[in-house]
Amino acid sequence: MLNLANNNFKGTIPDVFPSGCQLKALDLHGNFIEGEIPKSLANCSELEVLDLGHNELIVTVTTKGQEMELPKILTIFTYIDLSRNNFHGLIPAELGQLQALYILNLSCNALTGQIPPSLGNLKNLESLDLSWNNLRGRIPTQLQSLNFLSFLSLSFNQLVGMIPTGNQLQTFSADSHIGNEGLSGFLLTKNCSDKVADPKEDNHSNSGRKIDWTLLIAEIGLLTGIAVVVLPLVFSRRWRIRYYKCVDDIIIEIFPLAVSRKWFLWTAI
């Protein structure tokens, strides 16, 4: 076990791990380490604990959304915490080969691409945190096979499509997926179809709208009727006289004579 946590180490991790390395725990969090993870670390085939956390931790590990203190590193507690660094690029699909992994925390980085479907091979995984990255695409349905998963955070990425609904994935709240505008499903208030919007379709969305001919014909008929009645009244004096005479006859039949006289006076103005 090599524990160099909570120091002021700077620079890179030396690429000096020998073949047949028997290191089981490497704890370097709480430093100012930069650069890449050395490839020779792959020689440590018995490595169970790797903590390269955000280099400003206080002897804590972020797991299942909470920080907990580890008074000592347990060999049965297998986890990888690479959170709060500046890692770029894709999540390696080779992570799916770490069958004994219990906790994987890659949050608060600049990772891109899709979530590797190979993560569904981590049958013992209990905590998966990929939040606050730039991950794209759909959530792999292979994650449905993670039967022991008790914490999941995929929030604040650029994921799209329907949220898988199998097994453990149904037990998580919407907080596990917030910050992904393109996601939809039973966990979110937005209930979209499984089809991901195509920008080309949006550009031509107006062209695909159907015309309601019934409504259009009714509107044309209304405008035509108004034109037939109003235009003659405005432009034809003879039509106005005949119109007023018809109205007078109707009023005389309905209202008393006194009211009719008032109507005559009003129309004569």
UniProtKB/TrEMBL annotation:
TM helices/strands, residue ranges: 213-235
Domain of life: Eukaryota
Any one GO cellular component localisation term in the record: membrane
Keywords: Glycoprotein, Leucine-rich repeat, Membrane, Receptor, Repeat, Signal, Transmembrane, Transmembrane helix
Subcellular locations according to the entry: Membrane
Protein family (similarity comment): Belongs to the RLP family.
Protein name per UniProt: Uncharacterized protein
Organism of provenance: Ficus carica (Common fig)
